[in-house]
Amino acid sequence: MLFLRLWNYLLGYLVIRVEGLSLERFINLTISKGIYMWDIDRYSYTAMTACINIYGFKRLKKIVRTTRCSVRILDKRGLPFVLNRFKHRKMLVIGLTVFLIIIYGLSSFIWIVEIEGAVKVSETELLQVLAKHGIMPGAYKRGLDTSTIANKVIIDMPGLWWVSIQIKGTKALVRVVETTNPPPMLDRSIPCNIVAAKDGIISEMVVLEGEPVVEVGETVRKGQLLVSGVIEDQETHAVRYVHAMAQVNARTWYEGNGTWKFNKAVTKRTGKKIEHKFLDLGKWVVELQKKEIPFKKYEVEEKRIPFIDQRGSIPIALIVREYYEVEELKSNTKLQDAKTKAYDMAYRSASKKVPENAKVVDKKVKYDIIENIEVKATVYLEAIEDIAVQQTIYN
Amino acid sequence: MKKRKLNQVKSTVSEMFELPKEITLNLPKISMIGNIQMLVENHKGIIEYTPQRIRLNSTIGVIRVQGANMNLKNIAVDDIMVTGEIKTVEFL
């Protein structure tokens, strides 16, 4: 039924009014001629309305004559009549087709190149290589052989193992896998010692090759010999040179300082803010909203929100300036607050010095307080790290 | 007498082979949805149609449908769909 309705709508149908005395005969004749009618409603003895398709209506003439009815069209429905209306609105049709052509045209270009997986390889370099082989914003996307381009990119960029280029709509998604460097080869023929890289107390020693000179618990200075690569046989006194290898974990200390002065002016945001928006069109900057800043004292934060593209190939960006109202606080900070603030600063500066492979195991804080002037905090971080460094023996 | 016998044979045969009787015996098939819709297949034309009363011709005589606000939803060569409020269906 739905299909039939749809079909009738596509072909177009008429709502007609039939008036006459022998309407039953009219209906029977249309049926026998194979003319399809639906939604017949008889609202008075001599009149009824019905729906009929265009083709059927043309064949009605003979029946109308024989049954002496009169037929009038009440309404024309369906797609052909809707389309007919567009005949008088040429510009609308032209606009519609132009719009469709523009949409189709614009969608057949690449507008965004997105890179996934590039960490060590610089994205700009990768983009340049891609552009050389035809993948860039504004490139025509049809007829691009993505797999050969991917192969060419791999050849051009030695830092990549695998490249896949997928074109999704107007976006080219480039996924790469970077090469990982093979572990460095150990040249075990070169004899060497192991010395300390830092001051510290040795907490653990694992000697793979060579003769340990120091013991666990010993304090070592930077540059001190830890494991010797020179082995002397006790009986024959023959000297043998080896490539010493060891892991020497030691406790090391890092220090950080932080001072908090009481008379420093403190500002605090009140929570009120105003946004001022500009549109950056490359050469011109257009102010979107005119606003005056009602704050006496304020801080400004500026953000650039690029339009469509992150890399700014389209030079349009929205600049949002946020003005935060601030108020100055009287420096009545308590000693405890000052202490924590000084501590925070000291801790941050100390933890910056700790290398990545070290593990912090303990921390100590010391405060130097000058009453009402400043609080100075010193943080000592105790860490465990490998301090073994190889040093070649020259003889 | 002869015709009745023939019909009886047809009826038994169609029951035996589970054939649709409206085709073998040439009878109208009436299917109704509640009292709001009625589909008559294998009819032989309309005798009368008013919103209160519809009379249809068929092989077993006139089918009279009475009700209110009745429309002919669909009309084809051998089926008619009546919608509206149906009150009685009679075979005359």
What is shown here, in short?
Chain A is an alpha+beta fold and 395 residues long. Helices cover 25% and strands 43% of the residues of chain A. Chain A has a five-stranded antiparallel β-sheet with strand order 11-9-15-21-20. A four-stranded antiparallel β-sheet of chain A has the order 2-3-1-4. A four-stranded antiparallel β-sheet of chain A has the order 10-12-8-22, with no helix packed on it.
Q: Can you put this structure into words, describing what you see?
A:
The complex is a heterodimer of chains A (395) and B (92). Chain A has helices at residues 2-11, 23-32, 54-58, 61-67, 79-86, 90-106, 123-132, 146-156, 335-353, and strands at residues 13-19, 37-44, 47-53, 70-77, 112-116, 160-168, 171-178, 192-196, 200-209, 211-212, 219-220, 225-228, 230-232, 239-241, 245-261, 266-280, 285-287, 298-306, 317-329, 359-370, 374-386, 388-392. By secondary structure, chain A is of the alpha+beta class. Chain A folds into four domains: 2-83, Alpha-Beta Plaits (2-Layer Sandwich); 112-178, Ubiquitin-like (UB roll); 189-264 and 331-395, no CATH class; 266-329, no CATH class. In chain A, the strands form six sheets. Chain A has a five-stranded antiparallel β-sheet with strand order 11-9-15-21-20. Chain A is elongated. The mean pLDDT of chain A is 83. With 92 residues, chain B is an alpha+beta fold. Chain B has one domain (27-91): Immunoglobulin-like. Chain B has two helices and six strands. In chain B, strands 1-2-6-5-4-3 form a six-stranded antiparallel β-sheet, with no helix packed on it. Classes of the chains: A alpha+beta (395), B alpha+beta (92).
